[in-house]
Amino acid sequence: MASWARQVSRWCCLLQTARAAEFPRRLRSCSSTAQACRGFAPLPLLPSRNDVLPWRFQAYGHVSVGSCSPPDSAKDGSLSSPESNLPSPVKQEQAKAETLPDLNTKILYEDWDDIPPSSALEEISEEAAVQIIAEPLLPLQSSTLRDYVDHSETLAKLVHLGVDLSQVEKRQKAGQLLLTLDFEKDVRKILLFLKDVGVEDNQLGPFLTKNPYILAEDLEALETRVAYLKSKKFGKAEIAQMVSRAPYLLLFSVERLDNRLGFFKNELGLSVKKTKDLVIRLPRLLTGKLEPVKENLQVCQIELGFQRNEIQQIVFKTPKILTASKKRLKQTFDYLHNIMGIPHHMLTRFPQVFNSKLLRIKERHMFLTFLGRAQYDPAQPSYISLDQLVSLPDEVFCTEIAKASIQDFEKFLKTL
Amino acid sequence: MAAAAVPGGLFAVYKPAGVAWGCVREAVETRLLRELNAAPGRAPRQHVRFLPAPAGADGGAAGLVAARVPVLADHPLGKGRRGASAGGGGGGSPGRAARTAPDAVSVAVRGPRFRRLKIGAGHRLDVKASGVFVLGIGHGNKLLTDLYNCHLTKVYTVGGLFGKATDDFSDTGKLVEKTTFDHITREKLERILAVIQGTNHKALLMHSNIDMKTQEAYELAVKGLIRPMEKSPPIITAIRCLQFALPEFQLEIHCLHETQQYLRKVVHEIGLELKSSAVCTQVRRIRDGVFTVDDALLRTQWNLQSIQKAIWDCQLKVKTELEKTLGHHNKSCLPKMDAAMAHAADS
């Protein structure tokens, strides 16, 4: 955050010096017509700076307003005294500048060379004084983008695109990055690229919210990575799905992506096609850390006692298990296996139980036990599958599985 | 706008066993926040900007028209807005300029409207215990303090299991010893319970700081208000056996200033008194002051509407109880003033 401030203040300094060096005369002439200066000065006066961020113009506008307004222009006075031969503004001209701010400003520029000089101490009329707006300066230092959003075209456009700036500014250096970008120059090409990759229009905002850093990436590098994925025989729709679901995917270098694909293939012992299928369904496997995945596999194998082929089946059915928390996995397994007495091969058939909350499994199992219906063996009558146990909503579970009313279920829950 | 009003008051939730009370509080807060932030907020604030009027409409002098422009809302005008502020931003009175402070921007910029709620917890329940757990939102936090100062009794059902002893008195702890329990009968158990109730009754009278030989004590006793009004060791006001089926049994305990661990210890001591041992299988609070198990909201009901309704339903109960207890004690503190006022009214 502090470094934004540094940047902002640096720009301010830059503008101040530019003002002093390049166009003292221009500024002098608009000293008493501050709003006119604010209105059009930046655009025609800085032809060489057309590539500069629009909000800097804004900042410039503010700075000039702040220091040019006669009441606080002691500093300006010293600066302008040697130029007292400069023309002073004519009321008429001022009116013209006000009313026709979008007019051809070149004409005005030429006209102003013959305007008689004005002094900083010169009295101005009540009308003119009223027309000077003293808007507060842009804050030099801020912890949020909120202060800048009304002055930056890039930020404004990103907001209209659906980017949640309040989320972005929490990320390290992301806010600073957005402020230094120019929409036309930097952002547009990335957006077009993402559209080419296949990210949906309404997904662009959430995508950039998750990963603002992609805006600073080199376009060629991004294209290479997409080309790499294509070379691995991922279809266009699949790449689109992967990129939108795991926004950080394209920030990974080709070597790293290759490494990671290899990791999943070797570690799980899956075929190429199955590995591809896995990462298409859960692309965040590729962008997440690999250490927890390794640990989870170890937990499944050693602590929970699953066979290698069982693990393959489980992972293929519910890839989420690889990113789940170890502790939760163990607790759920402990309850399912040791208390509900469900054997390994049944768990392999219904691995989705590991995704549901332990509390939910507990409550439902206890209710079924209370009713005498807790029967999870498919070989016997009135069998209840694990899938039905966890996936159905409460109402359906009560009527279909437990054959009881939801009120009874709630009453039962209050006795636990 | 009206939809997103933060409720304030007291309500009870049913805390499941195995979850820390802090997590319950957090869960309620997140769910409320989600609903409050999903509700439509206030309309985006408006800038007053002076936009250039179409040329030639009424001469050169009055070429600016005042217009209200939303401050960076999701609005197609967003593009034109910057042009407006840069191109025609002159000519406003200072008062108007001050009103357009740039601090109000749309939610996407500002983040969610509510970030945290003041939710306070009443009497705590430890991780293994379940039952009625009182929470307060907003001004409910003050009521929580008042309710604490009322020192109301709480009711628990406590499950026990004879024949085992563990290091933390609960059934999940490390097993310390195994004993026989065949000799225990319901009569023996109830005799022990009567002893416990008797000793605790003495302690209750001692800690309530009231001279038993006074009219005041009689009046308090009639109203059932004899209880310690300051900190005291845990006191059991009533204890009875609900179920007895060896090796299991279930007790109902009315008590105040207890902790759940103390109740487990009571079960353990009952086991020892009966020349056996016992562990506590369940501690479940079925009443906390005025809040009963029927008032408590289950996990599925932790939403804005149910909570608002629960607050509404309990308001009266809480109020009458507070008036009954605190009102009485305030009066007893200032009996002379009361008498003086009565005298003044007479004359």
From TrEMBL, chain A:
Key words, A-Z: Mitochondrion, Transcription, Transcription regulation, Transit peptide
Source superkingdom: Eukaryota
A GO CC annotation given for this chain: mitochondrion
Chain spans, region Disordered: 71-97
Protein's cellular compartments: Mitochondrion
Biological processes per GO annotation: mitochondrial ribosome assembly; mitochondrial transcription; regulation of DNA-templated transcription
Residue ranges, compositional bias (Low complexity): 78-89
InterPro entries: MTERF (IPR003690), MTERF_sf (IPR038538)
Any one GO MF annotation of this record: nucleic acid binding
PANTHER family assigned to the protein according to its UniProt record, in alphabetical order: CGI-12 PROTEIN-RELATED, TRANSCRIPTION TERMINATION FACTOR 3, MITOCHONDRIAL
Family from the record: Belongs to the mTERF family.
Protein's recorded name: Transcription termination factor 3, mitochondrial
Highest classification ranks of the organism: Eukaryota, Metazoa, Chordata, Craniata, Vertebrata
Automatic annotation (TrEMBL), chain B:
Top-level taxon: Eukaryota
InterPro entries: PsdUridine_synth_cat_dom_sf, PsdUridine_synth_N, Trub2
Segments of skewed composition (Gly residues): 85-94
GO biological process terms on file: pseudouridine synthesis; RNA processing
Segments for region (Disordered): 76-102
Molecular functions per Gene Ontology: pseudouridine synthase activity; RNA binding
CDD domains named among the record's database cross-references: PseudoU_synth_hTruB2_like
Pseudouridine synthase II N-terminal domain: residues covered: 116-259
Entries under Pfam families matching the protein: TruB_N
Family, similarity comment: Belongs to the pseudouridine synthase TruB family.
Protein name as annotated: Pseudouridine synthase II N-terminal domain-containing protein
